Amino acid sequence: MATSSTIDPMLPQPYLVREVSKETPDTFTLRLDPGNEARESVFRPGQFSMLWVFGVGELPISISGDPALRDRLIYTVRSVGQATHSLVNQKVGSGVGVRGPFGIGWPVEAARGRDVIVVAGGIGLAPLRPVIYQVLQNRKDYGRLVILYGGRSPRDLLYRKELAKWARIPETQVLITVDYGGIGWRGHVGVVTTLFKYSRLHPARSVAMVCGPEIMMRFVIRELETAGLSRDDIYLSMERNMKCAVGFCGHCQYGPHFICKDGPVFPYERMRPLLEKYEL
Amino acid sequence: METLERIIGEHPFFAGLDAGFLNLMVSCASNVRFTPGTYILKEGEAANTFYLVREGKVALELLAPPHKPIIVSTIGIGEILGWSWLMEPYVWKFSARAVDAVRAIALDGRCLRTKCEQNHDLGYEVLKRFAGIVEQRLDATRLQLLDVYAVRR
User: What is the pTM of this model?
Assistant: First the structure.
């Protein structure tokens, strides 16, 4: 049986689209599987793949599925350009090339025994969903799970059924807010940082994993530091234009780092000198 | 039974407040409740009260005729509702509606304004705490205005 570790990282593997489901008006979740081939899809939370849409191009997309389910790969994709539009409009049964998984993921194993704080903005929840799955499947190995999620509006929120399900699990706190709430919305309105005052954090025993627009992450870091979290316990998922995914091409260089190879998940302490630099 | 003094003293907004000032606050305070959907205060009306929210959620709304009101923010447990009572012309700039059943402590703004004028140490203490709230909300509003989740092309 071929596994991801024995495959040439530059060679796309054939996968079939098994399901495309609409999450929001512009965001879709795709389930891919290797068809009749006996091939396991092994990844760690926070890793990404390069998805090849034949005749269109290749895209770096975070894996948003459950790492325990090795017969499939799940991606949540926002349709914002030609390539993503083409990807989310693939018909069930059509082929997609997959390279990867690539990159350094979230420190889920290292967080055993500690509280896990997940802070996500917009589609940033997608790369964090595997973390949530893994923590919940090994519930006794972790302390509290706090999920703080901000979206643009109620209709832009991802995984709403799952969020509601997770909120009912003991020792799990899920807080959701939107920047713009319609009159019928009964939840919080305000940016994701406003949720911190309702969360019950124990900074000394917590690890925070943050993913969203970079500016949002900067504001979130301020809140985490104010709450008392150590910089060494804050992790960020960074995003730059990734092409080769293995650190050859340099497209995703960020200061001395290649986001594709050294990240996309980094400890905040390593990113801190770069985050406040202009035009980097 | 919980006394007003204890409730106010334990509210995060008044944490660490001098006992003498706390007594002055208590003399301007009362317990209030609002059922879901009730307007606690309305845009354009005289602002002579503020609230320490103890339970429930409040939506801050801005009138936007001919459309439905826009919710600009929500305020929850442990937070302060209303600061227009502190600044002239003492008129609400937003409306506030109880989303859930809301329990709060209402503080009489006229009563407190008078005490702050008479005792500037109290006035400075109150102003410092409100300035902190204003700063937090300004930060949040700036981030909200950036519309960070919108598609950038």
Answer: 0.92
